[in-house]
Structures are given as structure tokens and as C-alpha cells.
Amino acid sequence: MSDFYNDEYNKQKQSNQNNNQYNSQYNNYNADAQYYNAPPKNDRSLKAVRTILIICIILVSFFLGMLANSFTKKETSILDTVLQDVKRNSIYYDTETWDAIVEEMIVNGGTSMLQTIDNYGFLLSPAQMYEIAYPTVSTQPTFGISFLDTSIGYYIRHISYGSGAFKSELKVGDVVVSISREGFSDVDLRNASAAEVNDILSGDNDTSVTFTIVRGLDTVMNEGSLSVLPVTVTKINYEGDFVDYYFGATNTNIDDDEILQKLKVDSLNGTNIGYIKLNSFDKIGVQNGSKYEITTSSYEQFKSAMTLFKNVYSGSGKLILDLTGNPGGDIEQAQQIASFFVYDFTQTNRTNFLVTTLKGQYDVEQRVYETKSVFSEYFDENAAQTESQIMVLTDNNSASASELLLGCILDYNTGIQVGETTYGKGIAQTYYPLNYKGKFLHTDSHGKTELLTYNYGIYYTVAKYYTPSGNNIHGKGYTPASQNIIDTNDRIALISRAKTLLSS
User: Residue 81: which residues within 8 A CB-CB, separation 6 or more?
Assistant: First the structure.
């Protein structure tokens, strides 16, 4: 849930541009013997540099603390002032290494300090901020894999349709134990840091990475076979696969992994029960001159799936909505998708349904999100008066916008939760430009690469969100009724429980 505050960002960006620039007059020092006669790079010099850097870090920490307390203040000049002073006066300043040093200090050190007060906060590099301000590609190049970090490696929860991973031999349920890439040190995922993983998985289109995977861990306890093999995957652009669905064998776009094959054959065939997996709340588009045009979104794909759902089941279908592994995303996408699941059982004929309320530090930051109801266009509203038409599957990784949507369904009593307790993320973040700038290599959609200069930025928490009934579930999540708590690793049991509830 990161792009609720684009308007706030743009206002702050303009304000920063209007700020008075720091007076860069050089502070001349007398040519005393203490500067010219001291041995170069001795202990005293090192201590002096360390002192300067410590002061810098303290001031950055102060700045971050101030900013986190009130994002409307303009303390960003502090950071720029300190860094420029170090740049002018440090005897170790080197034009060849300065940008790299600053990048490490700001992004790594700043993120560490910010996370002492905001677990979701981090510093944005100039490249990341530029991508936010000027999205120039239709999709982000990606491998198309959703991972779950475990003690034995990275468990593959989802492979997006049409992605590089989809075109490879990877399967849902594989566990990646190591990653190798030409020009990089191999990464053992059983004890690797997030920075190491992000580094080796970085890169533009056509970046190839070899995953060493373990296959068969879900069957080895039942005398199944276990295999270890390398699989090479290439990062590509592809139309986002935000939605998977199964409405019978002839109406499906679900990846052909073994578990979902069982789902197709054994569980839902011959029923009036459909299945939709919503993978994220997102949108992608293209840059057309100065205008950014959306080409596809979670809502548009979900709407298309629901139209097919209605046509296949002739208005009498019931739905399993799978939110497992869905980390959230754009609140406006959740707001639009909620229209399919809100309904007025009181027959008061209301026109607007509350989806969520965001509350910041001050009452003026409160934002209300509402939607219309299209529930009766897709479900039997008469049957819905007495029995649930929707089962929502969740796990510990169903977070943020997923929980927002689930909260709507539960508060309006249109569905039942099955699976595991959700993550418990009931807060929203935004981004904010710093005055300090850095250089980065940028490749546009035409393949042209150039060196650009842009602001660093900060990403931090600005609001809590509340369900229609006024609940904030941060740190708590949603827990299914006791009889509906199912181990989500057992997909067949999970689907079977949902099917039983819908068939009763």
C-alpha cells in the first residue's frame, strides 16, 4: 500500500524545489603547521574523519526521527548540509569513490536508523525515486516468482503466467537453496542476508540466474522421490498476471503445478464452485509522452475473471477467493475489487459502502475510501441471505490490502475466512524526496542508457487504516473461526474445507 499519497508527494517535491539552497561558501582554514606538517593519514587524521562521520550519522538519525514524527516538516536540508560539509573538508574526499560512499551511508545506514523507529521505513536510491516519479516501462523486468523465506531455503509459492519462471522448469513447491549468476558470488539462501539476495536478483531484461532447487520435499515423507537440480531463469517484461482462476477444466489460467492439477481433477470439477487467486493489488502501464497510461491492473483482470465466472455458472456460482501469499499493494485496486463483495443485507438500499478509513498523525490526514456494490450482478442475492457464497483463503503472508479486502468481506458478512491468521499489517506508507542527490545509470524503454542525477528519498509510515466497523488489525491480523483453521501447506485440505462449507 505505497501509492496512496502521490498527490502529497508531488506537493512536497515542488516545495523542496523552492527551498533555499544551502550557502556553499567555502570555510577557509589558516595554513597552520597542524594541517601541513602532520604525517598524512595518521591516527589523529583517522580519528578526525571518524568523528566527522559519527557526527554526520547522528545528525542523519536526528533528521530521520524528526521526519518520522511529522512528514509535513522540511528538515531534509540537514542531511544535505552535513554531507556537503564532509565533502568539502574531509581529507579523504575522492571524486571516484564519493558517490559510492554516500550511497552506502545514506541507503544502508539511513535505513538501519529509520527502522529503529519504523519497521517499514527505508531510504530510496536515486534510481528508485526516479522510477516512482517517471515510470517509463510497461512492466518491471522480473523473474515472476513469489518466494517464502524458510529455514531450508526459499519456497516458491507462485509463478506468474507468462514470466521467465513460467517458461522454465521451475514449479510451485520447489525450494531454492542457492542462487548463482555470472560475475557474482554464489548465494546460499539458507543463511543469506536480504541484501545479498536482492543484489544477485537485480538487473534488467535478459538477466539470467541459475536456481539450485530441491524438489519433492512435500512427498518425501510419503516415500516420494527427492531431487536436486539447477534451473536457469531469465528476467523478462510480461503483462502482469495479477489473477489466476479455475471455473472448470475448459476455463482456467492456473499454472500447471501438481497440486493445482489435483485441484482441477479432484476438487471442483462438476460443481458450481469457482476459484480465483488474487496475487497482488497492482497496476502497470506505459509512458506516452508526458502521460502515463495504465495498460492493465488487478481490478481489470479480476473484473474479467468475474465476468467469466458469471457466464460459466449462469449467476448461481459460489466462489473460493484465494488471498494466500498476497502481500497487498495499491489501496485503490482493493477499493475497486471490494465492490464485488460488499452487500446490504439490511435492505436499506445504501449506495456507497465504506471500504476503509486511513488516519494519519493529524485528523486532517484522514482519508475515506468507498465503493458501489455489484454483488448482486455476480452472486445469488437471495441465497446469500441464508448461506455464504464466498470462502476466503488466507495465510500468514496475506497482508495489507489483502487484509483490507478481507475486512470488508467479514464486516459486510458476505464471506467466511478459511486457512491461517493473516499477517497483521494495518498501516500505510508513502515516499518523500530528500534534498541530497546522486547519480545513476538509467536505460529507457528504447534501450538508451544515460547517466542521470536525481534525489534520494525516504519511504516511511504515515497512517493506520481501519475496517468499515472501525477495527485496526495491525499486529493482530484476522484469524479464522477455530473449525476453519487449516494448514495452508496442505492445499488439498484447504480447498476441500472451503468446498465443504460452500456445499453445505
Answer: 22
